[in-house]
Amino acid sequence: MTSETGTKVVKKPRKRKRLLIAANVQIPLAIRAMIYWLSCVVTVHLIRLFIDGPVRALFGFTTEGDIAAWWVIYGPPFIASIFFVPIILYDILRLTHRFVGPMVRLKNSLQKLSRGQEVEPIVFRKGDLWREFADAFNAVQARMDQLEADLEAAREPDAREPEHSVTT
Description:
Layout: H1 23-59, H2 66-114, H3 131-155
Helix pairs in contact: 1-2
């Protein structure tokens, strides 16, 4: 975007409005976090099964009441971990937004540029990752603008040179 004086106007970064902006990247990462959580829960219970069982047998404990004891010992942490899953997923989606968002903006600007449309300089939001991509894109865009201006100037006839007329 250019002002009336011909200088580039840099827009302020937009505030995030959506949590999912690139579901093809963000959802697999959220699923991966759920798999990690489930793996931790299963691991804790396998440890209990393979360590606690032999210890009980070694010291002569009975299995009577084991289920109740298991629930008393492992139930509250399991329930607490279930409450943390939405918080973890939300945090992961916000984190992915920090690197997916800039790439979406870069992709959209490159598509506009390839169609010959005017492209505003890219400004990433505070906290976004890969700021160097915005700087590199803006440098390429400025170079292209300069080359286009130079080409346009070269195509215009120079007003200072008189036109040559052929006289017979």
